[in-house]
């Protein structure tokens, strides 16, 4: 059973109750344009200053990749929402008290662009995850350099379901504060790509990240996304250096109410789900 933890209580909810499609392993034959997508994804990531992204993640728990996808890629990705063959399950948020609106989990094999992005982004974020591990729990096993190796670990631990998802919000929809955990093995960073243009396609619907320091009230950060921008966020917690070593700051994310129009996002979680 996959888990997404809500803000009020740490309850496990049957996200995958509607799962139906058989699960394929990520080693299933890649789609024909996979090689091109790999090369293009790696090239598109080269233009970012990853040291600066790492500093932002350390400082605030989130970082931005402006223009990760172009307008055509955003449109193609959002249009997949209507193509049932891409997905293993559909979740209506209201039925689980997750918010209002819906999302679908991709099935394996992932669309080539998504597969390539997930692999290439992981390789860029693994050093940050390693730094966080060293700061917080040096005894935990290292994060592997390659995403395929992380998936092998997930699958051996019973986390076999793909977690990348497409979300669709209309007027009045929102996404409650939560953490995308899905099992014991939790890679500490995830990526959210906004596929619609604020002020044109929709109003409202801002991605927010909360931060809770020990013995302090929560702080909210609104992430300034335009269509095609990606936010990298801490999944559950990040280390902050204090006077006596590092301590854990807890994070949750959610989306404020969409006031008008339609908003699509692509969510890339790196661990798979139970
Ligand atoms: O729609 C959003 O901006 C948030 C999506 C989300 O919660 C996720 O991808 O994990
Ligand atoms: Fe999420």
UniProtKB/TrEMBL annotation:
Keywords: Iron, Metal-binding, Oxidoreductase. It comes from the Bacteria. Pfam families: Oxygenase-NA. Residues 160-273 form the Fe2OG dioxygenase domain. Belongs to the iron/ascorbate-dependent oxidoreductase family. This is 2OG-Fe(II) oxygenase.
